[in-house]
Amino acid sequence: MRPPGAARARIAWWLTICVAITVALTLGGLLVGTTSMHTSLRWILAPGAQSSIVLWDIRLPRTVGAWFVGALLGLAGAIAQGVFRNPLAEPYLLGTASGAALGVTVALYASGASVGALAWAAQLGLAGAAVVGACVAIVITVALARGVLQTSNLLLSGIVVGFLLSAVTSLLLLTKPQMWRTMQVFLLGSTGYLSWSSTSILAAVFLVCIVPAVLLSRGLDALTLGEDTARSLGLSLPVLRLAMLGIVCLATAAAVGEVGIVGFVGLVAPHLVRETLTVNHRHLLIASPLCGGALLQAADLVSRWIIHPAELPVGAVTACIGGAYLALLLWRRTRDA
Amino acid sequence: MPELVTSPSENPVALACRELVVGYGAHNVLDGVSLEIQTGCWTAIVGPNGSGKSTLLRALAGLQAIRGGTVWLQGRRLGAWPRRERARRLGWLAQSATATDLTAAEVVALGRFAHGGWLAHRDVDDDAAIERAMRATGSLRWAARRVSTLSGGERQRVHLARVLAVEAAVLLLDEPTTHLDPPHQEDVARLLRLQAHGCGVAVLSAIHDLSLALTADRLVVLGEHGLVGHGSVREALREDWLSLAFRTRVDVVEHDGVHLWRPAVAALPP
Question: Which long-range contacts does B148-152 make (Cβ < 8 Å, 24+ apart)?
Fold first, then answer.
């Protein structure tokens, strides 16, 4: 009764391709920067003191950090889609990302510090504020949707909450013009601030999120059979939902706390997995982060490349890709309906 | 201490309710229903639409909040059972067979959740139970297929296999024969009878098809105003509970020892 050989072989192929793409994108992340490709290549082949700082302390943590951010968002999206049994649920559309951003803004506003180049403790404090903001946002969204979670009501409430919280963020920033410039980059989503310390926070949060998520993944499988059936199987739905949404908030908050609002990775990654693999939730919760990580690395590369040597906010790139993908999904759903 | 319900037949009572009151909003669907469901017995619930068949099953499964009365599972109050222990003893099948992207084998394997819990790995017992259940329902050959790609009837059999895989002492099934063509309905009826008589399971199922319901051991007849009667099929026919429940004449004929519902077509002009 194990999964048949063909399905396992397909998963193995998928993993191989995904890892290969990630490795290629990581190399790309080392090569692309303000210098020309030639210079970057020479740096890698013949490292010097200054070049190794650029490569290993600026470009590599940025690329690896971007992977973790994408992985966290991919995981959060996959979980949200399972918990709400709604294929369009994801951190950005649920308002959690805006909530986390508001949390960060409030913390910075209160402390008077600015984004980037913060000490460990300050970064942890920011992450905490982001978690609180994300939790508040998801509670409001679910309350507004009045528990009707499978329908577009949930997404409408999420979008409303997202708008409202973003508006509050903007209002706060307007009263402190000196914060406005740095925060604007942050709110559009930027991988530019990622350092080894922020990358290690992201890695730690990723581990803390994915282990319980995979252990509880059978609950999401059971939930696809309907709430009553899931309860009749001996599952405690409140515990499952609380744990899973806690993970969604933590993952979203960590990602937003480090790079700002990066939308749609959480939507696209699980969908790409489902389109290429037949998966249960255990597979989905492992594959979506892998896919999301590669996606954000790719978006990061594009954002650094497209107007080289200047760069775009990565959030703008994911919004373009993700928005187009969402439009495609909607078009397909209305066509099939 | 529960006052233990004594049963009219010699089989022990697996599931019972006393003065059960269940409702939605201002309306009580069931008001003061008392029942005893015996081990080794297939009991069918019949009644018109809206008489509360599904509500009764959901209340007995602990899925529906009750407003009054008590439900006993194996002599212990339903609510007093720890969640997973209860799920091991009580299998429940929903009326609509959900489409899911899981494979048939994965769906059936979920029936084993109560036996291991979150951290347990599937063991030999689980594998054996899953295969038995899928073989019994004839769903083994779709094991690797996504349930969403199966037909309604095939899905129904996969979900039935999931319930059987629990290996519970009590099975509560809401319309297990919907979406099935008549020969397969008969297969399911045979399967339920086998579970009851062969494995000593207490089976309680809502059955829409009257002739099929009349092949059960016992009947629970629900009318618009609650329980009409509860007893053996013979008793139900003698007291004409079906006509009372449906508020119209329900003709049942006996043919080769089998009771058949006869639709009233004689009134049509020649």
Answer: B148/B99, B148/B100, B148/B101, B150/B104, B151/B179, B152/B97, B152/B179
CATH number for the domain spanning A81: value is 1.10.3470.10
**Residues found in chain A:** 337
Tokens of B111: 């029936």
Range of the domain at A215: 4-336
Distance of residue B93 Cα from the nearest chain A Cα, in angstroms: 7
Q: Report pTM.
A: 0.90
**What confidence score (pLDDT) does residue B265 get?**
65
User: What pLDDT, on a 0 to 100 scale, did the predictor assign at position B7?
Assistant: 41
Residues A182/A116, Cβ–Cβ less than 8 Å? yes
We find that the CATH architecture of domain B9-89+169-263 is 3-Layer(aba) Sandwich (3.40)
Contact B228/B237 with Cβ under 8 angstroms?
Answer: no
* H/E element, B17: strand B13-24
Which residue in chain B has the smallest CA separation from A211?
B119
Q: What are the angstrom distances between the C-alpha of B204 and each of A201, B61, B193? A: 54, 11, 11
| CB of A222 closer than 8 Å to CB of A235 | yes
Return the number of other C-beta atoms located less than 10 Å from residue A37's C-beta. 13
Q: Is the distance from CB of B149 to CB of B66 less than 8 angstroms?
A: no
Helix, strand, coil % in chain A, rounded to nearest 5: 80, 0, 20
Q: Do B87 and A232 touch (CB under 8 A)?
A: yes
Q: In terms of CA atoms, which chain A residue is nearest residue B174?
A: A229
> Does a cis peptide bond (omega within 30 degrees of 0) precede residue A309?
yes
| B54 in Cβ contact with B65 (< 8 Å) | no
For A227-244, the pLDDT digits (tens) are: 999 999 999 999 999 999
Q: B103–A278: do the CB atoms touch at under 8 Å?
A: yes
**Residue of A217, A225, A276 to mutate, interface with B, max B Cβ within 10 Å:** A225
Question: Chain B neighbours among A 279-298 (CB < 8 Å)?
Answer: 279-280
Number of structural domains (chain A) is 1
Distance of CA A332 to the CA centre of its chain: 24
Domain boundaries, chain B: 9-89+169-263, 97-167
Instruction: Give me the phi and psi of B38, to 5 degrees please.
Output: -90, 150
Least confident of A104-118, B209-223, B232-246: A104-118
